[in-house]
Amino acid sequence: MGDLKALISIDGESSAEDDPIVIQKEAGPTSKAVQDFGLYQSEMPSTSAVTRGMTLSRNNHLLDDDQPLIMDNNSVPPDIPINGSAGSSNRNIDNSEPIFHLRSRTAAASTPNYESLDYEVCENTLFQDEQRKRLTERFSLRKDIIRWIIFIQIGIITALIACTIDIIIEELSRRKYTYLYNSVKENVPLSDASDRDLLIPYLYWLLFSIVPVAFGAAMVTYIEPITAGSGIPQVKSYLNGVKIPRIVRIKTLAVKAIGVITSVVGGLAGGKEGPMIHAGAVVAAGISQGKSTTFVKDFRIFKAFRDDHEKRDFVLGGGAAGVSAAFGAPIGGMLFSLEEAASFWNQNLIWRTLVASIISVFTLNIVLSAYHGLNDFTFTGLFNLGKFDTPLKFDYFELPIFMILGVTGGLLGAAWNSLNTKINKFRKRFIPWKIGKVLEAVVVAMMGVTLACLMIYFINDCRPLGNDPTNNPVQLFCEDNEYNAVAALWFQTPEATVRSLFHDPPGSHKILTLALFTVVYYVLSCATFGLNVSLGVFIPTALVGAAWGRLLAMLTYYVFPQAEFLHPGKYALIGAAANLGGVLRMTISLSVILMETTGVETSFFFPLIIALISAKWVGDYFNEGIYDTQIQVNHVPMLTWEPLPQYKGLKARDILSKPVVCIKLHDSAHYIYQMLKKCDHNGFPVVDDVRGDRRSEGRVCGIILRSQLIVILLKSLYVENKRFWLPETSIQTFRDVYPRYPSIKSVRKLDEKINYTVDLSMFMNPSPIRVNPHDSVPRIFQIFRALGLRHLLVINNENRIAGIITRRDFIYK
Amino acid sequence: MGDLKALISIDGESSAEDDPIVIQKEAGPTSKAVQDFGLYQSEMPSTSAVTRGMTLSRNNHLLDDDQPLIMDNNSVPPDIPINGSAGSSNRNIDNSEPIFHLRSRTAAASTPNYESLDYEVCENTLFQDEQRKRLTERFSLRKDIIRWIIFIQIGIITALIACTIDIIIEELSRRKYTYLYNSVKENVPLSDASDRDLLIPYLYWLLFSIVPVAFGAAMVTYIEPITAGSGIPQVKSYLNGVKIPRIVRIKTLAVKAIGVITSVVGGLAGGKEGPMIHAGAVVAAGISQGKSTTFVKDFRIFKAFRDDHEKRDFVLGGGAAGVSAAFGAPIGGMLFSLEEAASFWNQNLIWRTLVASIISVFTLNIVLSAYHGLNDFTFTGLFNLGKFDTPLKFDYFELPIFMILGVTGGLLGAAWNSLNTKINKFRKRFIPWKIGKVLEAVVVAMMGVTLACLMIYFINDCRPLGNDPTNNPVQLFCEDNEYNAVAALWFQTPEATVRSLFHDPPGSHKILTLALFTVVYYVLSCATFGLNVSLGVFIPTALVGAAWGRLLAMLTYYVFPQAEFLHPGKYALIGAAANLGGVLRMTISLSVILMETTGVETSFFFPLIIALISAKWVGDYFNEGIYDTQIQVNHVPMLTWEPLPQYKGLKARDILSKPVVCIKLHDSAHYIYQMLKKCDHNGFPVVDDVRGDRRSEGRVCGIILRSQLIVILLKSLYVENKRFWLPETSIQTFRDVYPRYPSIKSVRKLDEKINYTVDLSMFMNPSPIRVNPHDSVPRIFQIFRALGLRHLLVINNENRIAGIITRRDFIYK
């Protein structure tokens, strides 16, 4: 192995690794080279040919999962000459044995069917023809204007969806809690502490929780499982360049919307903010494509935007609009999208994203202000933490306290993440049945209601009426003119509770109440995230943080009653920031969102940042943020910011995958057909200067995608019948089938066209990015990420293929 | 020419363009090939070999400006064999004639000596050795911590400098205006309108203007001319990747600080915000390098950060800290830096930048709050527009009005830019003398004072005392208990005037006052920007905008007195935004800065964005933003966001520069020495597989920089004496001479070492980015910009050099 690598030397004198005879010698008797397909293999522990075959390149819409990667020797077309010198000994390959059975560093992971987006623009001849036709100023202006219109639409529609969800949740929640309030009033006799009967309200409460939660969980489980959770990890992955199946469909949006309404109304410990962001992404993908897969409807508009590149740019705007609508934070929204997506800072794109965000916030303001009867657009965002009446102030000596809060947040957050991951692993292992998942959601909902009821029943925390912060002050077991502070915490949506913790006057709760509430909510939220329901994790995290932040301030004030600076709302805010930093670690956009939603003065950014950084650093010491953990658990091949430390000293030759299946610039239709049937890679180098069929020894002149090859076969774009198709074939021919390319199985047998040839020079991308085998991995990683690549060809000094690097080669060791 | 290009075909079969014989045939008798230097040339109008030689690659610290690019045939060392087959006919080259006299598309521009930054990390063997040694977790953690410390220092020191400048300006201005106020009081007899004698105050005013302005202009002109103007174009260029000589030196900072103080105190129509940003950049560059060129002092710290890559990352943070300190807008500061610099979104870098920004704002808060006697850190930013007391509200029907204001701003801004450019052209042409430049500044200052005095003298705008917004309400010719509203506008710094226009109650000024004020200030600011003084353009632009915004509101209210919505402060704000959008067009960061400084509600972002976008679009129709105009006027090779439209249909082969001077992997010291003396390119491809001396036909295996070659020669790093230097040579050897690499002239003659050879394999960057001649320019541009390249090698299908592309090849047509 070492010898083999040495052959790909820096001096580039030798390119013997392309010689199958050498390979065979090196690799010993286990090696088999199938000359007639230009394929060879060797026993290389570090190569990962199977990786791309089995994982990244597999598209389960297109290919059977169980089709082994056998190179069926019998199917070799008779017109392809077998290379005599090296191939003769390989003719009697055992057909039953798969060619690729190499050990691979990634094959071990049971990786689902994720693909990369083709973010790279394929600048083939057809594309250039289109460009040339449209070089006119007018066309590019028109395309630009349409782009702007789409972005504005994204902003408006995302906001409208957010409003709809919000209003429905608010209406239903209000009815639910009003009913419960009345039920408590009727069933609990006033001033008669001996007859504490909460049973009937408890049963009602259970009913109001179980029914919506069961409905939502069933929808998610049976109709669209991808809608489970907050959706932020999925949107993050998509923006990072990973195609998650069904993530941006309208059906997904519908299920998600209903799912989040039922879950929040059902009283689960979760928020609606994550799903809002997902909704924005779906809206963007839907509008920009001008067609819907769910409704099998093509509006025949925006056809020019039908590729991964344009679509992802729109989804960027959609995600930003979603964040803006959810938090009322347009700059935060823009940064959220950028933080996940922007490998290249394109000013125009960011400008459009910002406008979509601002329009989204504005639309939401109008609608919700009208709904709430405000006439001055002062309603901002769904997650409205409420502006602080007086500017928050702080003293120098509080900075260490904020840091301690940050450290606490980091510790609690790391523990939460770890606990949640364990619970989810347990779930995955012991609850595989669908009905079990629905039942589990119901059980957690019941647990929440029961714990709340127990707290209300056993804790006696009565406060005088008058400065009550809730709409429904429950008297319960309190005296007249008093209300129950515990019930006040529980008898509203989690969001309203965060607001209460920020803005309630000092002394609104007992220390015991808040302590128990913190613990209960911490456990509940941990059990909830990972259920098969649509729910975000932002609100419960902020709520837990606000609770313990306020609690710490109260405790300290109890010990040092002279400490006047201990404004409980301020500490609740810092606590929320610290807890969010500890759980999410989203860093930049999170900081900006917090700054925007709370509307604090610029001078208060510093305490917030201190808490966030401390929390993030402490948390990072233990584990990763909850979104990243989710992404890892699902084996999504997400690219990190920097190459993993294990890759630091490596070279391209250490991570590349080979052998590489190549295609000749003029190749036979039959070879292409057979090859597509046998292997399911997604990118094939196009080579030239090939002796016989030793394709992998040719000089690289381009790269072609599987989807393009299938279209070529489907539309019979052969050299022999060029006069028929050439006039009407354009780049649009390929765009029309986007995004669901047909499978190779949909191509009929090439009986009469078996001798036809395909000239790829018109279709291939002639400018693939190429690197050398001795280039360092950090550098390659930078190129890969900055340019949003899917395939990176590794060539030797003579421009012959040495291997291929894909996204997955940078992930897991 | 066409035939020649056809040889570099897509099929890549032929690489005949590397054959000098073919070239000579194609190019005809004018062609001369200097075989012994591996150089050849042909009469190609589109090649721009001379470009790099004359402009981009020229470093005037290193090289004579007037040294012609003659390949002196006499100096050919005897030990280098002349290639007989093609070279013999070329031996008698006329020595007096420069080899490179090709027409070039860029040679026409009288381009100053700008170079690119070497942002690309040179991953040579030495670098990898260092990496390997430091692969330990501990080292990388240490480096990370030091980076954080530097960023925090940048934030603090930038803020302290900003504070110092601000406090000095405030103190001096207060004294100046108090003195003038008293002088007016003494010299203008009360209630005696017949005896309107403003002469003595006028003379005092003149004196207080002329002295500081003359002093400042003289300093700028005679000591450091680069400090003229706001500095933002220079910082922008630096962040974009262009090395502007002397831009980040401590001397520059000192002159700039004194310059801005004198100019603002002198009463010129300019602000101190631009210079603050420049100051931040200087601080960052200074601190991060741990040495000062101005003081010839090396602190021997932060040695690992001595390269263009690290330095630019720190300057990014410095610029952000500067913006934050100037405007009190940390998020805007971060975005400002990103907008100009971030070709690659590195989360850690942005995180550090944000922290530097927030710390800068915080430090400034502390110091200025203490200075102003506030104990709650409520002083935010130097450019404090003042928070609006009540949240700004607006109605739907105002949106078109905002748009009209935006269009007005765009028109006025475009006119301002155009006028200013004309004035500056006039200046450049007719005022070449240094003393003339100083006098000009004095004249403009006198003009300002005179116009102000005339306005005060002739306009009778008296307002009742009591709601006066200024510190020095001048009674002047008014009745008792009244003050002069015109004098109030003029008797303060421009910044305070902006604040007045935003927050003064309705009816504080006459329409005539404001109309005249707008016109006068518009003309004054236009005449001021471009003077040889250190001044920013932000404040006067905002001031003009606020003035006409308020004026429009007043006019409309005068016509429709029932229009209650016409809050003059609101319209002043929108007017300022529109005018800023029209003049600067900075778009994203400007929007965010405005949102942050005015502290408006999220709901008011929408009107601001409408005004900004309308202004930008209308302005863009006519000309470019003022900063970009300045950059263009100075011929700075700044890369745009997208390739220029003229480049849309082109291929790499249409823009590449050739011939390319190459070096063999093992080349003679003498050849390298001679080559460095003869040509002043900065990057040389390293080639291998060379037949004889036909270097440009070798296979590319790396790239080496001029600076590296000079260090190699200076330190005698030859193969023959390897045992002496090998142990102690590391990447630090090269870093030590950064950033002022010695000139080739500092290398002694190689008398005894004339036969020594240099092995470049250890020093060269083995992973240069390479593209093909048929790759499209937009794609190449994207690669170039995303990776922050300086040299991009164009290779043919056999990995032999076809040309080189540098920054300048993307600019000007």
TrEMBL record, chains A, B:
It is found in: Membrane. It comes from the Eukaryota. GO terms for molecular function: chloride channel activity. Residues 656-719, 764-813 form the CBS domain. One of its GO terms (cellular component) is lysosomal membrane. Its main location: membrane. Belongs to the chloride channel (TC 2.A.49) family. This is Chloride channel protein.
